[in-house]
Amino acid sequence: MTSVSKSDLIEIGGLRVLLEYHALRLSVENGDTDWEGNLVAAHHKLHLMEQKMFRGDESEKETWKRYDWEFHLAMIEACSNKNLLSLHSIMYDRYLRYQMLVLTYRGEDAVREQKEMFEVALARDTKTATKSLEQHIKNGVEHALAAMA
Q1: What kind of architecture, by CATH, is found in domain 6-148?
Q2: For the chain, how many helices (H) and strands (E)?
Q3: At 135, which helix (H) or strand (E)?
């Protein structure tokens, strides 16, 4: 496994954008009612945990990260491409190494970004959903890079 470095994080972030962008596009186009329900549930759990974090209670950081993962997975799970989901899981796990190093809550910006991704995905606005996702991942990478400095 590659050692932790800023350049590795940037590469992993880029791969996440590539994989999630494609998977989200397919999910928005092909997702059914079950996908919508899973997405609503995942966003609800994440939102509740983010409210807790926003109030300064960081006692459940690991749960928050798990709910973040579940939300991102729910966004793309309707892509119906097992290989794409498998590659995404590998990249997300590698990205999570950096998140664990700098496990800090990005606050209102992240909440706003995730809410927008959620709403536009449910509205089947593929263009805005993928653009929002790309920006969200890039912002997360920037946040982690700054924390590594």
Answers
A1: Up-down Bundle (1.20)
A2: 6, 0
A3: helix 126-148
